[in-house]
Amino acid sequence: MCALLALVACASPSYVANLKGETTIPAAPPSDTGTPLDAFPAFGSFTNLDFNRNQDFQNLDITKDRVTSARVFSFQLKVLAPADQDFSFLDTVECYARSGDREVRVAHKQNISSLNLSAPNPVLFLELTDAELQPFLAAPSMSLIVRGKGRMPSREVRLQADVKLDVLVGR
User: Fold this and answer.
1) Which of 23, 28, 41, 49 gives 35 a disulfide partner, CB atoms 3.0 to 4.6 angstroms apart?
2) What is the pTM (predicted TM-score) of this model?
């Protein structure tokens, strides 16, 4: 029992860092409802991330050089507008962490259009890879890149990504 207490007392503190971003998927041309969706527009606040400027890090007085481990523990996409839009236009989505020439997949989902996630404002939970992100957080900057395939929607669709990182900090 004492050994267990000693391990708990020596464990690194764990914190949650939240990242949110939005993007807009353009509508297909009016005469072509089957236009392939081969590229995702970038999510606004997911490029050139410097975690020393992350609000959660600042609130907890954490600097990225103290991070010993970081992993995504939640990644979800939500349709913000139009409210009656579903995810039927999307087949697959993948998210990668990138810093310099290094890249690692952190989340993904297949067969999305068959999930029947219904409006209003459906939420898609991505499957996680358990990739270690500490080297990416420690870099001067990193980006989260989202890639998707499907068909362009008949109307412009605004999406929000909500990402939560489990961050361990050394003392």
Assistant:
1) 28
2) 0.88
- Rounded distance between C-alpha atoms, residue 53 and residue 66, angstroms: 14
Radius of gyration for the alpha carbons in the chain, expressed in angstroms and rounded: 18
In the numeric block, which tokens belong to residue 72?
Answer: 């995504």
Report whether 94 contacts 148 (CB < 8 A).
yes
First to last CA, the chain: 24
If residue 4 lies in a helix (H) or strand (E), which one and from where to where? helix 2-10
Q: What is the DSSP letter of 102?
A: E
Give the Cβ contact number of residue 57 at 10 Å. Answer: 21
List, in sequence order, every beta strand (DSSP E) within the chain: 14-25, 36-37, 67-81, 90-99, 102-109, 123-125, 127-128, 143-151, 157-169
Say how many residues make up the chain.
171
- Here the tokens at position 169 are 């900090």
The residues near 77 (Cβ < 8 Å, ≥ 6 apart) are: 87, 93, 123, 124, 126, 159, 160, 161, 162
45-90 pLDDT, tens per residue?
A: 899 999 999 888 889 888 999 999 999 999 999 999 999 999 999 9
Kindly state the tokens that stand for 95: 């998210």
